[in-house]
Amino acid sequence: MNRLKRWGKELIVLLLLVVAVSLAMDWLRSPQAPANWPGTPWQTLAGKTVSLSEMSQEKPLLIYFWATWCGVCKFTTPSVNQLVQEGENVLTVALRSGDSAQVETWLRKKGYQLPVINDPQGELSAQWQINVTPTVVILYQGKMVQHTSGWSSYWGMKLRLWLASF
């Protein structure tokens, strides 16, 4: 019984340590919205012009910075695609993943139907100080309210969208 109690305490300490390190890494890698972002229009691969400010007014907007070459993204992108299919407010940015035709081909092969802004040279991502893929940014009513980098689960992103409403 004492052994089980000790293992339980060690597990709790380990979990707290993992959470602390994760939060510290998010803080160190935190993106910064550029000063002019509310008025800057973005063009999707589908040819639609979007405004982040307008998209984030009524409900939180999840912006997913990813890349076709990113190993971790292959675990997060299916969850983002599921959020899009469920009607969540999502926009994605393909970072240094080739020209628009290459990104569209990659999306088609994977069966993803994502609203994508192509960032072939990484200029847009650099403006947001995105240093890690994948990175998730949540905007609500014209403000960046949450962000995380690295792997995110479907439920983790869903929870972040829900929490951003408060």
Automatic annotation (TrEMBL):
Coiled coil regions, renumbered to chain: none
PANTHER family: THIOL:DISULFIDE INTERCHANGE PROTEIN DSBE, THIOREDOXIN-LIKE PROTEIN HI_1115
Protein name: Protein disulfide oxidoreductase
Domain of life: Bacteria
InterPro entries: AhpC/TSA, Thioredoxin-like_sf, Thioredoxin_domain, Thioredoxin_ResA/DsbE_sf
Organism listed in the record: Yersinia proxima
A Pfam family annotated for this UniProt entry: AhpC-TSA
Residue ranges of every copy of the Thioredoxin domain listed in the record: 31-149
SUPFAM superfamilies (alphabetical): Thioredoxin-like
